[in-house]
Each structure stands twice: as C-alpha cells, then as structure tokens.
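A brief tutorial aside. Many learners find it easier to grasp structure tokens once they have seen a single protein encoded end to end. The record that follows does exactly this for AMP-binding protein. Read the sequence first, then the structure, and try to relate runs of similar tokens to stretches of the chain.
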Amino acid sequence: MAVTARSQIELMSGQKAADRFEPHVRWLNSLTERGMSVENLSQAEVDAYHRRALRSLLQFVYETNEYYKQRIDITGLTPEEASNPALFAQLPFLTKEDLRNDPRCIICSPDLAHIHTSTGTTGGKPIFIGHTLNDLYRLDTAPRYPSLMQNTRNTVVGNALPYEMSSSGLSFHRVFQYMQDCCVLPVGKGGAYSQPDKALECMLAWDMQTLVIAPSYAVTLAEHAQKLGMDLHRDFNLQHLFLTGEGASPALRERIERIWSTPVTTWYGSLEVGLIGIECLEHQGYHLAEGHNYTEIVHPVTGEPQAPGIVGEVVLTTLMRDGMPIIRYKTGDLGCIEDGPCPCGCRLRRLQLRGRMGDQLALNSGNFSPLYLEQQLLQIGGTGNWYQFIVENGELSILVEASDSSVDRAELLTEIKLRIEASIQQSCDVQVVDYVERDAGKARRVIRL
C-alpha cells in the first residue's frame, strides 16, 4: 500500500501526543466530512469541546513537561480538575518574559520540526516557538473556518508575507495550500529574492485571485504597480485580500479596498499562538478561532476574569499543539468578547480589539491607541497613506504626506490639526511633507523620543 504524505506525518508524530489529541482530530474531521465546521456549532457545543480539549492538553503537559507540571501542582488541582473553566483560571499566567528567559521551558515534544522567532517589533529579546510535524500538518489543520476563508478554495494565492524567521509566511502557505487546495505564489515581503516589482510580475503572470499581505506592504505594492504602469483594477483578477501582520484601522482597510478594488478582511494572530481570529465581511470584530484556542479576557492588573463586553487583556491557550503548547498566555493585547449574533451568520464569538498595551501613545492628556489616531487622520480627505506619530515628553508631532499634488497643504494642515487636537484634547504639531520614510518591512508608524 502506498504511504501518503499525511500517513508519514502521523508515523513521525509522537505517540503520546497522538493518543491525547487524536479524539479531537477525529471529531473535527468528522465535522468537515459532514459539510460542517466549528463555525456552525452552538456555544454549548464549543464549550463542551473546549472542556474535552483542555483536559487532554493539561494531562499531556503534566506527563511531558516539568515546568507545566509544577504550575499545575501549585494550584493543588489535578489536570482533570484544572480543565474545568471555573478552576482553569487558577493556573499561573505565561508571559513574554517567561518565553524570553527560557523558551525551552515549555517544550513538550523533542520532535520539533522547525522553529520561528519573533520579529522584534515589540522590543526585548526574541521569542522562539517550535512546532512538530504533527502540529503543522495534523493538529493545526484539523479545525476549519470555511465561511471566513471567503471562497478562496482552489484559487491562486499571492502570499506576500515574510518567509524568513517569522511564522507568518509558512503558516499561511500551509493554510491555503494544504487546507484550501490553492496554488500558492510565495512572493514574500520585499526580501532579497522577492522585490516588489518581481512580486507584482509573478502575481500578474499567474492570475492571482487571493492576496494575503500586511497593510503597509499592500500600499507599497500598489505604489510599485503604479510605477510599472500596472492598473490594479484592470490588470488583476483579485477576488479577496486578507490583511495580517500589523494593525490597521477601518479607515486604512477601506483605503486598501479602494486601491486594490477588492473586499478586504483581517486576520489576528501571533507567533506564540498562531491564528486567533478572522474578520468577516461585516467588519464587526474578529471571529475567534475557537477550534484552535481557548480565549479569556482578564483585568490587566489583577488578572480577574472579565465579563463579555468588558475590555481587558487577551489571554490565550492553544488547544491543538504538542511541540510547545501555550497555556494562559498574556498577549499584551486589549479587547473584549461579544456573544451576540453576527449578521454574517458565523456563530463563533467575536473579539473586539482595543490595541496593544505597550503600543499606547503616552500623551499629556492621556494614553491613546495609534490605531485610534490613524482612524482620525486617514478619514480626512487629502491625507496620503503614509504618516508618522512622533511622541516626545507627552507631546505629539505628526508627519503626513498629501494624497497628491493638487491638495492645498495649508488647508490640509489646518484640518488635521483641528481634528487631532479635538481627539486628544491637547495641541499637536503637524507637518505636511513630500515624503515619509518607509521601507519594505513593517511601517514605522510611531516614533518615541
């Protein structure tokens, strides 16, 4: 009998992990076979799955990892007892500093197949997260979210995310190639062999229909297309664009929709956890990837659980991972969970993000999310797509480009100044400049002096 790629992966995965997670893989696969997914389940069914998955996860880490075993023992609970959501909150939090100090502390399987590292945009030492083949091609691909994938099956996908060091490029490569039966164009993000001009030529030659890309790079590629004489509306057959890798205000997303002439939705994820949430076309929050993770919202200081609708810190636990599972990880992101129905019909709960705690702009009048200020700025007609917020001693300065040469810069400056000052309740300095510095990497939107 021929040995398939899937069976090879199963043979190479750890037996103890396979025993623990196999019932959940079979259950998730059975949903797919019946034309269903986690998206179709009631919250009671999702809660029951979470209880089963947490029980398996905690028993697995208790048997394979001393670090997690000690953390469970501290509570005086057994893994079975700790899997009860009411008691699960007694487990200690996992923090970025824990992972920076000793990333190997949470390794539960020696069979790591590859390791990714953080991009360094949040500061501090890098964080490393490893995955087994079982993680990558069996556990991570078992939960499906077909409606949120926006009919991308069997399309040609331009993957304009970084493939080196970061997890994003390879993660989306697997999602589209292995789960959506797509042909993937690994055009990267401005690397040595994936310059913007070359990426655009590849996308055009192979009739790309789906694009996954960071917000700032979506604007960069559009600018390069214009220089090459390409018409994004006429020359490309793009059906859907997914944004990820950076935050984007609704105003920036709407601009990208107009630039690329296609619907745009956003993915929320991280190196440590992977996929966390997917936005639908209603743009009313991120539908939680409840097949992959167990999500909590806690008070940022006390750690107490927050009720639905109350903003707190997002805390995540990976349910389907055996290499380096993440348990009660404090993301540093602020948000709240909405239980109400979404007009799109997807039944998964929605997460409303409110920015990252470490990214808040500390002004004399208070703390403000950069995305809040981006929304105020980009809603003003005549502003270009590139800007910088510069913060020094609680004062705010803004550098911004005009959208084109026909814009009256004096009027634009006055309008920006009035709107932003009304938003932050303090004065600010505004300069409309010819060019705001940027590169092929993540946009440097905020500078703290």
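Self-check: Residues 40 and 80 are 28 Å apart (CA to CA). If you spotted this yourself, you are ready for the next section.
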